[in-house]
Every structure is written in structure tokens, then in C-alpha cells.
Amino acid sequence: MSKVLVIYAHPETAKGSSTHELYKHFINSYVQKNPQDEIIMHNVSEYMPLPLNKIAISIYNKNLAKSTLNADEIRFNDARQKWINEFVNADKYVFVNPMYNLFIPAEMKSYIDIVMQAHATFHYDETGKTVGDLHNKKIIHLQSSGGIYHNGDTNEHVEDLGDKYLRMMLNLMGIKDYQGIFAEGMDHDPMHAVEILDQAYAKAEMAGKEF
Fold it and tell me: CA dist 160 to 28, 65, 157, 178, 202, Å?
């Protein structure tokens, strides 16, 4: 049995959201094929605690100096560690979002800031190079956008900075098995929006069976 961690970043989950429909086609297909797997979902657009704020920076500096944390810092650090442990212990990851200004939503970026932690998801070698500590895991990125940002079936990035960022950061953590499913171009070509979405949903369903 695998543990699947879903990081969903979209405040609108009601009917009519192409992002949510893309996710539903994927996850329903996945569950049908893997009914015993545990699925944990966080919609970080609705709840994104523990940002990289002054408390987080204070904790970082005190840890370097081997100083004692105060009560607020201990609570913050313990809560943040639970999110890190959950990420480390997952076997598969599903990132779901609409594109915002060529990037992922800010809350998803904040989530990456939580889990990208030295001595938890990566470490530095003797030369200062980043070495990922997470292995034998896989990721799928599900994203919707009104424009077109990938070149057909090659998924070569054109201006999709968000997918580039996710791929790079997760690769730094050691996760190499990464794929993206993109529902895009509905605003660019509204006459074919239904066809575009149906094709993306079909790809999501196939990916769900194989993930």
C-alpha cells in the first residue's frame, strides 16, 4: 500500500473548475486501480500555516547558534515538523493548481518552503553541493491554464515557470520520477475548449491508472 500526498492549490473547488475536474479524473482513475492506497489531501489555498516568516527565521538562526527556542517557536517548529515528516513519509505526490501569472499559486510556493529543509529532504556534501535525500518516489503535476505553455506531447516548457520550478525543487530533493498533465489553451481557443478539456481529462485518467 502506498501513501499518496495531494497538495492542491485552488480556492475554487466547485463544479466548473477545470483544475478540479482534471484532478477528479486523475484521482478517480487512480483510486479505482489502487483502492488500498492511503490518500492525504491539503488544499493549501484554504489553509496554509507556518509560512517562512520572522518566527521561522528566528528558529533557523537559533538552531545554528544552538540557542534555546521560546514557547512560540517550539510550537511553530513542532507543527512545521509534522508537515515535513508527512512529506518525507509519502510515496507519491500529486500537485494540483491553476497557473497564476506563469507560476504556481503563492500558497504552493509556501508549501515548498516548508518541506525544502536541510537534513530532512536534502543535505549538502563536502563541496557544498545539494544532495537529495528522497528516493524511489514519484510525482505528477496537474495544472490548468487558459493559454498554451507546452509544445504538444513533448511537454517542453515555453513560459511555464511554475512547472519548471516544481520540477527543479523536487529534483533537488532527490525525486526524479516527475510527469506533468496540462489542461491548457481553453481561453486561447474557446471554440475548442470542450475538446481541449476532454483530451486533458483522458490523459489524466490514463495517468491515474499508471501512477
Answer: 27, 39, 6, 15, 22
